[in-house]
Sequence to fold (542 residues):
Amino acid sequence: MTPDNSVQLIPVPGIPLIKPGDDLAEIITQQLAAANLTLQDGDVVALAQKIVSKNEGRLVNLRQVVASERAHQIAPLADKDPRHVQVILDESREVIWVSPGIFVVETHHGFVCANAGVDRSNIEQPGAEEGDIWLALLPKDPNQSAATLKTRFKELTGANIAVLINDTHGRPFRMGGVGVALGTAGLVALVDERGERDMFGYTLQNTVVATGDELAGAASLLMGQAAEATPVVLIRGMRYRQPKQPDTGAADLVRPPNKDVFRYPANRKEF
Amino acid sequence: MTPDNSVQLIPVPGIPLIKPGDDLAEIITQQLAAANLTLQDGDVVALAQKIVSKNEGRLVNLRQVVASERAHQIAPLADKDPRHVQVILDESREVIWVSPGIFVVETHHGFVCANAGVDRSNIEQPGAEEGDIWLALLPKDPNQSAATLKTRFKELTGANIAVLINDTHGRPFRMGGVGVALGTAGLVALVDERGERDMFGYTLQNTVVATGDELAGAASLLMGQAAEATPVVLIRGMRYRQPKQPDTGAADLVRPPNKDVFRYPANRKEF
Fold:
C-alpha cells in the first residue's frame, strides 16, 4: 500500500531510439499507454537531455568540423581531438578550466560544466560511414524545448503537466555527477522559502531550494547511463509550485557569475 | 497502478519532536506501523540531519559559549553574533569565505558548506530561559550515525535496509540549495560506471554518479523546511548497490581538496 502523499518515480519502458523530427511527446504517451499509464494533471515528465538533443537534430559529425587555431592550442592540454574541442568552443561563452580529461566551460546558456555538455556516448551512427563520429550538443534553449513538449502533451492527453530536461553535471567540493535541470516548463525550479516561519516561530534564513535540480536528481536515479538506459521518467504526486507567467523555467537555477564567490579567483578572499 | 520497477518516496507521518537519547529507529518504526507500513529489505530510510543531531545531543546553548579573538574578528564581516561564529569555528578545519550573510567553511568531516551546517531553525528551546539560543551542530560522524540506525532498524524489524542522513547545501554555479548525503550506511553512495559500454558499444567516460546525493535530493523534495516539516522519508524500490565492507558511506562523496580544481585559486588556470 502506498500512502496518498507519496511521490512515485516511474521509469517509462520501451522508449525507442529517438530521431530528429520524431513526435517525442506522442512516442512517450504511447509507451505510457502500453504500460497502462495515462498522464494526469500535476505529473512531471523528466527527459534525458540526450533524447531531446537528438530529437532536435543537435548532432554534429566530427568529420565536418574544421578546428580553429585556438582549438588546436587547447587540444593537447585537454587531451582531445582538436575538432572535438572546436565543437565545445562553439557551444561556449567562456573557457573555465583545461587539463587532461577536464575541460570545463560556461555554455551559452550559462551552465558551467564539462565539455559544454557535448557527449559522444549513446549516439547511434546514422549512415555509419567510415570516419563518422557523431556528437550530441545540448538543446539550444532547453526551457523552450520543455515548454514545447508540455504544450504537445496537453494537446495529446489534455493533462496539465510539467516537463523537465535533465543532464548530469560534476561539481566542486563533492565527488561524482548529479542530475541537474537544464530546462523546465510548468513548475517553479527555484523555490524561495525565506520569510516563512519554522515550527517554533523562528523565521527561516537561506532557504532557497533548487527543486528543479532535486527533481532532476530523483529522475536521474532511474535513468542510468549504460546499456539499460531509461531516458524518460514519470514523476507522479510531487506537490510543486506553479510558475508565474512568463515561465522562466530552469534559467532561475543558473547563478549569475557576480553572485558566485567561487567563480573567479578575484572574488575570493582568504581569511 | 504503479509499475513494479518504480521508486516510491514516502513521507513518514507524525514524527514527534526528537529529544536526546530517544530511540529514533523505534519511533520511526512505530510511525511507519501507524501508517500501515513495514520496513522491507532494500528500503532506504532518509533522515533530516536535524533530528539525528538533536537525538545525539549535538546542541549548543549560545549563552554558554565564549567567543575567541578570532571569532570577534570574523563576526562583523559575517554579520553574526561572535559566539555563533565561535561555534562554527569549533566545527571547522578551515574558513573558506566570509562576507555578510555568507560564511563558508570546511567542516571537520570535509564538507564545504555555509556555517558548518550549524543551524538555529527548528530547534525547540529546552527550559526556555531568557537568553537561551540553541544551535544544532552536524552529527560528529554521520556515517557512524547511519550505521548505528541501520543496525537498530534490523534489530527492530529484521529488515536489511540502508540509512541516509541528509542536509541541504548551497553550491557554486547554481542557485539554491540541494539535498546532500552527510552520512549513509548500506548503500554505495558514489557509483563508478566507468568502463561500462553504452547501447552502441561506446565505452562510457566520466560516469561517476553521486547516487547518495541524488537520493538525498529526492528525499529532500518531501522534507520541506517550514511548519509542515517531514524529517523522515522512506525510499522504496530503489535498486542501489551494496557496499563492500567496511562501508565507507558518504565519505566517498567528499572531494579531496587536491582533486578539486575550484577549491583554491592556486589550482586555477585561466585560458
In short: Residues 102 and 250 of chain B are 25 Å apart (CA to CA). Chain B touches chain A through 88 residues (CB under 8 Å). Chain B has a mean pLDDT of 89.
